[in-house]
Amino acid sequence: MDEQTPEFDSTIAEYYRQAPEERRLEQGPFLLEALRTRELIERHAPAAPAVVLDIGGGAGAYAFWLAEAGYTVHLLDPVPRLIAEAQRRNATHPRPLASCRVGDARTTNFPDASAEIVLLLGPLYHLTAAQDRARALDEAARVLKPGGRLFAAAISRWTSALDGLARDLFQDPQFAPIAEQDARDGQHRNPTGRLDYFTTAYFHRPEDLRAEVLAAGLLIDGLYGVEGPGWMLPDVAERLADPRRRADLLRVAHTLESEPSLLGISAHLLVVARKPA
Ligand SMILES: C[S@@+](CC[C@H](N)C(=O)[O-])C[C@H]1O[C@@H](n2cnc3c(N)ncnc32)[C@H](O)[C@@H]1O
């Protein structure tokens, strides 16, 4: 990263040095997150060929999928370990990424109006200060072409409370204060060292995510609950492996995806926005 790149939170950096983020979407409730996120991207994305900037793209789970679909994809992430893993995959990939480098969502160094699609599937929940999220969203708006689409993910304000019930985490006396602070102000902190309690983050209410995107001058096409309630089921991976029960999980997620009173029951929110033409 160059001298102008803002500082990356050291707690978050240490978390991704340890946590197996490059395999996260292959397991448990994250399988449903990945399926539904892809469904929503496919529904709203301009068709290939087009330029995609995957900002905060980790080791490239969505970047490689979009490259395989014919898009020209640039991957950016502040974690050197994840970028090294993406570069390793890229070296032998039949549809390689156009570029892959360490960088930050607040200052991407991509040219103005250079992309039809920007993915921000991570930065908005790891930038805990509102002014930093505004910088990331302004930067996304800057690099989008007029008419281009932004796909930005947030974590729901109530994820810890719901996850605590689903996984019986309240038996740990250290967990309740984490979930209570999340519900109070969205500022998720994990002083325990347990990787499954995640790391420093901001958990949004749906209306806050909407307001932040509008403040960047973007027009909202949709604000979705990604998983619906299915992510809380202890056997979600088994259900997804069974065609009929998989269809049911996806059907319910789809039915509830835009219902304002239930958006926050999903672990993830996804806003789809466009830069005015
Ligand atoms: C949970 S991972 C998600 C990765 C991938 N986009 C996905 O959806 O599976 C969150 C990602 O956000 C990245 N991230 C955190 N802070 C960031 C920032 N300031 N700028 C860009 N990316 C950031 C992390 O390095 C990490 O790869």
Question: So how many helices?
Answer: 11
Structural domain count: 1
Distance between the termini: 32 Å
Q: What percentage of amino acids are in beta strands?
A: 15-25%
> Which structural class do you get from the secondary structure elements?
alpha/beta
- Oligomer state of the chains in this structure: single chain
Please provide a written account of the structure.
With 277 residues, the protein is an alpha/beta fold. The chain has one domain (10-274): Vaccinia Virus protein VP39 (Rossmann fold, 3-Layer(aba) Sandwich), CATH 3.40.50. The chain is 41% helix and 19% strand. It has helices spanning 10-18, 28-44, 61-68, 80-92, 123-126, 130-143, 159-166, 175-185, 206-215, 236-241, 243-256, and strands at residues 51-55, 72-77, 99-102, 115-120, 144-156, 187-188, 201-204, 219-225, 268-274. The model has no long low-confidence stretch (mean pLDDT 97). It binds S-adenosylmethionine.
